[in-house]
Write a structure and sequence with these properties.
By secondary structure, the chain is an alpha+beta fold. It folds into 3 domains: 82 residues, Uridine Diphospho-n-acetylenolpyruvylglucosamine Reductase, domain 2 (2-Layer Sandwich), CATH 3.30.43; 110 residues, Uridine Diphospho-n-acetylenolpyruvylglucosamine Reductase, domain 3; 109 residues, Alpha-Beta Complex (Uridine Diphospho-n-acetylenolpyruvylglucosamine Reductase, domain 1).
């Protein structure tokens, strides 16, 4: 597992860049799973990150950009290439607006807004990871998504800095243009809030945090929900008739319901466990492996497909796998 010395030399020339070789990626994922990266490039400087991205792209070396690792499944073999991570976390408030770098921890953004009596992010309290990843996956909870607060997104392709407005980001449920254009990397975001009572916002955030921590304890090595919820209108007609009407909220049906119907709760392979109290929660209960994690995800997808004739779609992202290998048996 090596990167061309010439590429390494080019990266070494970039100021404000940290390079490490053969670093285990398990320490950068919420699952605590994953083999080594040939090279890990880490920086809090947006310019240095863009320069590093340009080097690896021009050299055609395999590379991937990661954030806080919340929704990341990394292969046991690791990643034979360059892993890039941008941790710039600067924040600047101007009235009801915030310009914040993509490497900021999402909870820090939530806390900063609540502390200033600014409404809009309090329902996302307790969601782990970086802000950039939240934009990338249009994170949300309790009927709200981060897209509601996005004004503009600043990103780079390694050559130039570009700005997109909210509409141009093509946000959808747990989706954005950036998921389809993985060569575009978010550097910073402009958010807009509404003024509200700080005490009321804090109470809302604290109540949501208590619920989330009970369901997904901070010490639990998991990615939260594994599968996206399902749009009722997109389900096969024969499936729609089986769903209790009270389960349909904002046009979506919880994936956990389908998983419960096929007996997913408590399934275990090695140290990878489906929670006994939540069918859409998979966690690492010890020395779990990516092989076992992927196998259980595939098993759950197949169980739902066999019963309901459609496949659930993951929220997690994969690094170091061949896509065909990950999805084998689940087309």
């Amino acid at each position: 597992m090596n990167v061309d010395p010439a590429v390494r030399k080019e990266l070494d020339r970039i100021a404000h860049l940290s390079l490490q070789e053969h670093v285990s990626l398990s320490q950068f994922t919420r699952f605590g799973i994953g083999g080594p990266a040939a090279v890990l490039v880490d920086t809090t400087d947006a310019g240095a990150f863009a320069s590093a991205l340009k080097v690896v792209r021009l050299s055609n070396v395999p590379h991937v950009v990661i954030g806080g690792g919340t929704n990341l499944v990394v292969s046991d073999a690791g990643f034979d290439g360059v892993v890039l991570r941008f941790r710039g976390a600067g924040m600047e408030f101007v009235d009801h607006s915030l310009r914040v770098e993509a490497g900021a921890v999402l909870q820090d953004v939530v806390n900063a807004g609540v502390a200033r009596g600014l409404k809009g992010m309090e329902t996302m309290t307790g969601i782990p990871g970086y802000l950039g990843a939240a934009i990338y996956g249009n994170a949300g909870a309790y009927g709200h998504s981060i897209q509601e607060r996005v004004v503009r997104v600043h990103f780079t392709d390694g050559e130039r800095l570009t700005i997109l407005n909210n509409r141009e980001c093509e946000f959808e449920y747990r989706e954005s243009l950036f998921k389809r254009r993985k060569d575009w990397v978010i550097l910073s975001v402009e958010l807009r809030f509404d003024e509200d009572d700080q005490a009321v916002l804090k109470k809302t955030a604290d109540e949501i945090r208590a619920i989330r921590d009970e369901k997904y304890p901070p010490s639990m090595r998991c990615a939260g929900s594994i599968f996206k919820n399902c749009f009722f209108a997109q389900l096969p007609p024969s499936v729609q008739t089986q769903i209790p009407p009270k389960l349909v909220r904002e046009g979506k049906v919880p994936s956990a319901w389908f998983l419960e119907q096929v007996g997913a709760k408590g399934i275990r392979r090695g140290d990878i466990q489906v929670a006994t109290y939540h069918a859409n929660l998979i966690y690492n209960d010890g020395a779990g492996t990516a092989e076992d994690l992927v196998a259980i995800i595939r098993q759950l997808k197949d169980m739902v497909q066999n019963r309901f004739d459609f496949y659930l779609e993951e929220e997690v992202q994969y690094v170091g796998f061949e896509r065909a290998a990950v999805l084998a048996g689940s087309q």
